[in-house]
Write a sequence for this structure.
């Protein structure tokens, strides 16, 4: 299974001080060096983490693939057609949400989504639709011209360790199976952690997982001890 690393929260930290540190490009290069198969960023309408310039810079320097997550807006479509990332993942976006809360509703607007997808696919971009593991949404996604779906693993992640875990995992399994039978390729992501990710290996259709927050959170702790030691040395 491939790993796409979402580095939005490196940008969140950078933006907290308004400067360039931690450097997003450097973070992407470290992820690639560590074996990441792709780098994912979400360019939000409010630009709360990744910014336009980041996306253009990443496209220039990445040796793997840039996966641009974005909402279905005219503005984002134009940026995607300018940047030409290898992949675009279309996500729902609500301004006040902390993170992408649910999957894209494709079923109620197949035509609109198809019209949005077409110019991207025509430009050679691989398009993925971020949807909940629901039969209706998978069937609708298969009608849009998008080559991939990314199954929203949020419900599974939230139910991990509870009585609902098994049924949520089952929903992902069934959705992946159905998607494959309809000719769609399948990725997954959201809320996956070092603890809960193991079950994804039970879904043979999965090509790539997109994981962000938990990797960046672990990276902070993995580096904190040596960082404090180094500063202590400098002021000794
Ligand atoms: N996939 C999609 C489509 C997302 O919107 C996000 C969050 O930006 C992720 C994966 C990664 O989620 P997390 O940061 O919880 O690992």
């Amino acid at each position: 299974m491939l790993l796409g690393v979402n580095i939005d929260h490196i940008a969140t930290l950078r933006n907290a001080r308004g400067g360039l540190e931690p450097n997003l490009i450097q973070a992407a290069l470290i992820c690639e060096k560590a074996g990441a198969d792709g780098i994912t960023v979400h360019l939000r309408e409010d630009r709360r983490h990744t910014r336009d310039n980041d996306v253009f810079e990443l496209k220039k320097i990445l040796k793997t693939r840039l996966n641009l997550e974005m909402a279905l807006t005219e503005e984002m479509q134009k940026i995607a057609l300018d940047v030409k990332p290898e992949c675009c993942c279309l996500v729902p976006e609500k301004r006040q949400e902390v993170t992408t809360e649910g999957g894209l509703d494709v079923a109620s607007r197949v035509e609109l989504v198809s019209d949005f997808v077409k110019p991207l696919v025509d430009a050679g971009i691989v398009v993925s639709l971020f949807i909940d593991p629901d039969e209706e949404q998978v069937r609708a996604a298969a009608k849009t011209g998008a080559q991939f779906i990314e199954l929203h693993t949020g419900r599974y992640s939230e139910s991990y360790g509870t009585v609902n875990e098994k049924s949520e995992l089952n929903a992902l399994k069934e959705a992946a199976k159905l998607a494959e039978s309809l000719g769609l390729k399948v990725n997954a992501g959201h809320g996956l952690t070092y603890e809960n990710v193991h079950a994804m290996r039970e879904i043979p259709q999965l090509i790539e997982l997109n994981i962000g927050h938990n990797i960046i959170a672990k990276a902070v702790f993995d580096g904190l001890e040596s960082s404090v030691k180094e500063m202590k040395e400098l002021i000794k």
